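The instructor's notes for this session suggest beginning with a concrete chain rather than abstract definitions. Hand out the sequence below and ask the class to guess, before any prediction is shown, which regions might be ordered.
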Amino acid sequence: MVCPTIKEKKKITRELVQIVLAQKPKCAASLSGKILKNVYERYASLYFCCEDQDNELITLEIILHYVELLDKYFGSVCELDIIFNFKKEYFTLDGFLLGGEVKETSKKNVLKAIE
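After discussion, reveal the predicted structure:
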């Protein structure tokens, strides 16, 4: 896969945002472009988008697991939780993934590690 330039990444991001925001609320999808393949999912008012190189279903499962972790940590996660607690949200992601691969599947262990 060819690595896109910064200009190409910005263009792809703009296009991706327009496509994702135009979808219905219960819609999850995989978008294949010329350079990148993206998977996105919407939970309440939050949108999660990942670059996917392997399997779309595994990526959707990772997004779901991550949202469940955030829900357990914040109660009912919303965009304000992510904005004002970015470090905690990032530590949650870091406790769950390592190098783009799942390192810990137990929600209890991840939450204990970030406490």
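Then share the key points. The mean pLDDT is 82. The first strand starts at residue 29 and ends at 32.
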